[in-house]
Amino acid sequence: MKFNTLTLANAIALLRTKKISHKELYRDIFAVIDNKNKELHIYLSLDREASKKAEKNTSLPLAGIPIAVKDNFSTRFLPTTASAKMLEDFHPPYESTVTKRLVEKGGVIIGKTNLDAWAHGSSTETSDFGPTKNPRNTAHVPGGSSGGSAAAVAADMCITSIGSETAGSIRVPAAWCGAVGLKPTYGRVPRTGVVAMGSSLDSPGPLAKTVEDAAILLSVIAGRDPYDATTGDAVVRDYKKCLQKGIRGFKVGICYMDHPDLKGTQISRSVGEAGKLFKSLGATVDIVPMSHNLRPHAIMTPDHAIGVYTVVQRSEVSSNLARYDGIRYGRERSSFGAEAKRRIMLGTFTLSRGYADKYYIRAEQVRNMYIKNFHELFSHYDILISSPTPGYALKFGESEGNPMFGELTDVLNEPSALAGITAVSVPCYWDEKTGLPLGLSIMADHWQEEKVLRAAYAFEQNTNWNPWAKQKI
Amino acid sequence: MATKFTPKDVSRIARLANIPVSEKEENTLADEFTKTIAVVDKLNTLDVSNVPKTHMTGLKNVCREDVIDTERMFSQEEALKNATKTASGYIVVDRVIEQEE
After folding, report:
1. Which pTM does this prediction carry?
2. Which residues, other chains included, contact B91 with Cβ-Cβ below 8 Å and sequence gap of 6+?
């Protein structure tokens, strides 16, 4: 067995009992990186000294395992570029809270992974340093914006990884690369030190090989941070211990199946199968009808969320990216790529005098309708299931010439992102011809990460869609 | 009525956003903004008359004591490390006040 293929839970167990050494583990990890990184373009920077740091960490909870981190998390020992030319030479003088917590618990940041520049995109094609290829099929994109982290997991070029989501940026690459992606509740995991995109949406989270691995990482990175006022006091559990509780008695709602993008697709069949499985495990399962307007017992169409998300996100982008003036750090404003320019300018427009009421305020009002909708639905249901994407990973170039490609790809994730709730994507199908996977999305109310993880674990254990979940050591 | 952006609109927004754009870009962006806002304008089909105007996540403002956290203090060297232009321990910025002739 090559040790780079180990899950996080298994790697920790083997290191702690000294059945493998850090030297052997890092040898296998770097062997696959040296072999494939040039072609796949996953890591933008690497710490070649990582294994030396790891050896001291055996007794800590993460035992010195190598972690890949999206390159929008500030790290003192590796550059932080957000895949943008603007920040090509930037060396942060401080550490993000997420990476600080990982390192304190014995994790080692092995390298920084590629993303759409500034996390603006859904394919990792808009990285100023060139796209990442999907390890499952290199003619296809890995999804984005956390495409590098999802691909690092899929190619076993790390033991586990961290990404961030604004609307779909964890769930979509997880689905398209066949990994487990957990988008925590907004405010569950601190944003301190993460290059800001949409400040009312940004949620850092794990991209992992199994649900158990995602649960282990969440327990490490979650919790209040005095430097991010949106982080809540909600209790952080040892999520790994909750997994086996099962879902007997859960009320499950199946969503968006009558959406035109999903009708008759493989993913709608797979979501239906998941519903049957949950029923057999003791849950009650209903189909939630979709409605154009807000009404009780129905889920509002995700289509309105495209407009809401476009306005909210671009407005926040225009404000967040105003700080890049090339004076204290970074380069001049002319070095922004085309996508960043588009977003900053449109956001400037939607916030400008005379237009803010028409666009920004209306978008916030419709956002409130989504929040109210989920609030009502979660008074009847424990979890809602659907898919993060209507189909498989796109081929390179399919997004060209569409100024709203990202918004359209992420349509199924936008309502939940705007409402700030938690969701996970787990592999639920593999296409035999192309080798490409699909993901099942499981959503729950604010702070209910335990519910999505329990349901995802039950799905993973009772199906054969995630080969890592059956790994024997 | 559909909102149509002209290159002149784009040039005004570019100035507000402090983004340099070429004449060619102004034309492309005008077309892209028109398409994007057309999608956003679909929100007008929804009745929002009774919906609050600020979003309600239930978050409350948080205050803390303004104490010095030595762990987060930068040395002068660290603080200036990433600046493009420095002089005698200062960051050099462009002049924003007009000079008297």
Report:
1. 0.97
2. A327, A328, B80, B83, B85
